[in-house]
Amino acid sequence: MPPADAASLSPDERQASIASSDPVIPSMSLPPNDDLAAAIRTIPDYPKPGILFRDITTLLGDARAFGRAIDALAEPFAAAGIDKVAGIEARGFIIGGAVAHRLAAGFVPIRKRGKLPHSTVRVAYSLEYGIDEMEMHVDAVRAGERVVLVDDLIATGGTAQGAVTLLRDMGAEIAAAAFVIDLPDLGGADKLRGLGVDVHTLVAFAGH
């Protein structure tokens, strides 16, 4: 695993550290993406009738599947000089923190308004039935830092679009956005691509 003082290393040194470390679970023993999909529980009619809720807690509770998901999300950026991983509240904290550790990068929590103790920057974003706000600390990223945005799922893309705006307003370079689950029928990933963001996803489910 990366040394304890990895945060003090240059991006090139951090990536060399990653390349020389063995993952906790060898890649050859990990299940394919089809098995990742099977590890995600589907709950019908939650949180309202007609919705199929994709519950990743079953994936998180499966050590092999969780390790496979984190390795697969991090692998495309292993040599990309990533400075920070930004995770969207709340499940993006779990996934994003693990990806940041795998890349020897810092982690930035993007939270709902009023949840962070220090001075913040804020942006409004669209929800299905209205507008909400998200924020991050003013010193969370520096101009020019390369950031991967991470969440568990992308659906309509409103939250992710807000996070992209927030990070770019702070001068960050968004290297990509990465999600465990894509709901392509809702078009969120394509909206991010329309903003010039490279999008990586592991599994896709049809419908809502």
From TrEMBL:
* GO BP annotations, alphabetical order: adenine salvage; AMP salvage; purine ribonucleoside salvage
InterPro entries linked: Ade_phspho_trans, PRTase-like, PRTase_dom, UPRTase/APRTase
- List its EC numbers: 2.4.2.7
Identify the pathway. Purine metabolism; AMP biosynthesis via salvage pathway; AMP from adenine: step 1/1
The entry's keywords: Cytoplasm, Glycosyltransferase, Purine salvage, Transferase
Please state every residue range assigned to the domain named Phosphoribosyltransferase.
64-184
Q: What's a single GO MF annotation on this record?
A: adenine binding
**Single GO cellular component term:** cytoplasm
The reaction(s) annotated as catalysed by this protein in its Swiss-Prot or TrEMBL entry are: AMP + diphosphate = 5-phospho-alpha-D-ribose 1-diphosphate + adenine
Record keyword Glycosyltransferase present? yes
Q: Where is this region: Disordered?
A: 1-24
- Report the Gene3D superfamilies cross-referenced here: 3.40.50.2020
Q: Where in the cell is it found?
A: Cytoplasm
Q: How does it assemble?
A: Homodimer.
Role description: Catalyzes a salvage reaction resulting in the formation of AMP, that is energically less costly than de novo synthesis.
The record's family statement is: Belongs to the purine/pyrimidine phosphoribosyltransferase family.
What this protein is called in its record is Adenine phosphoribosyltransferase
Taxonomy of origin reads: Bacteria, Pseudomonadati, Pseudomonadota, Alphaproteobacteria, Hyphomicrobiales
